[in-house]
Amino acid sequence: IESAYYLIGDLPTWDFSAAANWPFTTTDGEIFTMTVTVTGLSNWKVAPQSAIDNNDWNVVLGNTLQDQNPAMEGTLIANGGSMTLPDAGTYVITLDMTSYTYNVTLQ
């Protein structure tokens, strides 16, 4: 488990320097959360601190199935496909880094 994780994708951008401004929050170092509002379909991945520090796409976390995966939960893997927030709205993204899983809830 890394010390920090960041949202990277259509919101804010697919750029590590901008993603560094979009950290997930944690209180225990295992469960990380973020609330994000999008105006339409938005693809995203999770950049661990090591990806930001080393500009390394190989460690960016995505899903195990496909790019633009609309599933609201799943397993995270390095160099996996992007996840998709399918519609406009406010979402809570939760990462459980003890099991490398994610869950997305539309508010």
From TrEMBL:
Gene3D superfamilies: 2.60.40.3620. Residues 4-105 form the SusF first starch specific CBM domain. It comes from the Bacteria. Pfam families: CBM_1st_SusF. This is DUF5115 domain-containing protein. It comes from Candidatus Barnesiella excrementipullorum. The lineage of its organism: Bacteria, Pseudomonadati, Bacteroidota, Bacteroidia, Bacteroidales.
